[in-house]
């Protein structure tokens, strides 16, 4: 999608601090981190949010979680704990309409979330 900031990051038209990349997925540091570790893991293909995930996307969604696990391990927070968040639509706080998993960690996470 031409006006999507995360598509632009995937196309290298907008810079980002990239942590991981393969043919189908990208992970990069959030520009406004909410925790010592705050990465975003996205499919390169534009999917607006979880409501647009189809059967054909099941593989990529699992792949994104595997990437999140690997980053958590690499950053040394896997055993301590971390949180994966996907916001969907306005009341959840979704601001970028390209599917992304937030990987948050490096501090204590509270529950219930705000
Ligand atoms: P949402 O609110 O949609 O769940 O999360 C969007 C996230 O994307 C926010 O945490 C925000 O800080 C991050 N973000 C928005 N624009 C950019 C950008 O241009 N670069 C990076 N690295 N992160 C961004
Ligand atoms: Zn996009």
Question: Could you explain how this protein is built, in words?
Answer:
The protein is α+β, with helices and mostly antiparallel strands and 114 residues long. It has one domain: HIT-like (HIT family, subunit A, 2-Layer Sandwich). Helices cover 20% and strands 22% of the residues. It is built from 2 helices and 5 strands, in the order αβββαββ. Strands 1-2-3-5-4 form a 5-stranded antiparallel sheet, covered by helices on one side. It is globular and about 35 Å long. The N and C termini lie far apart (30 Å). The mean pLDDT is 97. Bound molecules: guanosine-5'-monophosphate and zinc ion (ZN). The site of guanosine-5'-monophosphate has 13 residues, from strand 2. Zinc ion (ZN) binds at residues 1, 4, 6-7, 46, 98.
- Gross morphology: globular
Instruction: Say what oligomer this is.
Output: single chain
Question: How are the strands ordered across the major sheet?
Answer: 1-2-3-5-4
Unreliable spans are none
Present as ligands are: guanosine-5'-monophosphate, zinc ion
Helix content: 10-25%
N/C terminus separation? 30 Å
CATH topology: HIT family, subunit A
Instruction: Tell me, rounded to a whole number, the average pLDDT.
Output: 97
Overall structural class, as computed from helix and strand content, comes to alpha+beta
**By CATH's scheme, which homologous superfamily applies?**
HIT-like
Q: What is the N-to-C order of secondary-structure elements (H for helix, E for strand)?
A: HEEEHEE
CATH class placement: Alpha Beta
Strand content: 15-25%
What is the architecture at the second tier of CATH?
Answer: 2-Layer Sandwich
Number of strands: 5
Number of helices: 2
How many structural domains does the protein architecture include?
Answer: 1
How many whole angstroms does the radius of gyration measure? 14 Å
| Biggest beta-sheet profile | 5 strands, antiparallel
């Amino acid at each position: 999608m031409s006006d999507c900031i995360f598509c632009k990051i995937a196309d290298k038209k907008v810079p980002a601090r990239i942590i991981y990349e393969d043919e189908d997925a990208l992970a990069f540091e959030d520009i406004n981190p909410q925790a010592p570790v705050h990465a975003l893991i996205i499919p390169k293909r534009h999917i607006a949010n979880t409501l647009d995930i189809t059967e054909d996307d099941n593989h990529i969604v699992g792949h994104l979680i595997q990437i999140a696990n690997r980053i958590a391990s690499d950053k040394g927070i896997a055993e301590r704990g971390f949180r994966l968040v996907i916001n969907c639509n306005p009341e959840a706080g979704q601001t970028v309409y390209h599917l992304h998993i937030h990987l948050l960690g490096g501090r204590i996470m509270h529950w219930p979330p705000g």
